[in-house]
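Predict the 3D structure for this chain.
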Amino acid sequence: MGEQVTFWVLAVVSVAAALGVVFSRKAVYSALMLGGVMLCLSVLYAAQDAPFLAAVQIIVYTGAVMMLFLFVLMLVGVDSSDSFVETLKGQRFWAAIAGLGFASLIILAVGNVVFGNAKGLAAATGQGGYIRSLAGQIFTRHVFAFEVTSALLITAALGAMVLAHRERLTAKATQKDLSRARFQGDQPSPLPGPGTYARSNAIDMPALLPDGSVSEKSVNRYIARYDVEHGHLPADPKLAEAIKHSVEVEEESK
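Done. Predicted structure below.
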């Protein structure tokens, strides 16, 4: 009874998460949903007296591969508008072919389950224990499927790279272009670093120029906004006024 309840609860959760993978507009959400599906699979393995598969599912797939994809997507910052840009020619055609092949495999798998004869777990593990029987099945009878699965993981990694790929709309600026733009701008010299000629080398302290005045250009705008909102201003009135003024200038420029 407990096994049936576990199956139906996890079946609903995993199917809902799988639908979220397909219909989520953001790649990060799809990756999180896929991680939920993998966790449900690991619990189902554990319910079927397969602790090794449950541990591998969590450690290898959910803990390593899936989190790697998630971190890549989070660092790259792919949004929903990028997913509709076709950066590789012909990818829709090959994606349709791969989808038809995957659908055929699903139909064959369901047909084997429905119309095939169940052998049971005792017959599958009767060759010297659970781990030995599993290794024999993987590296003898199902070695081709095992290698195809590894190819699918590589394909998933390439898919993450395709999602992160962006077409360059303008030519990359050379060092000569950057130097010309710098000297034609308002600030040809480097900006003063935080804490320069100051009593503190902390990044949240404005720099003091050689004449003793405060350089507002050295103030980090994110830290300055945080200091103003939470009242973490220095005791020196000149430094505090410089931080407040840099935040006001940033707000006016938006």
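The longest strand covers residues 207-208.
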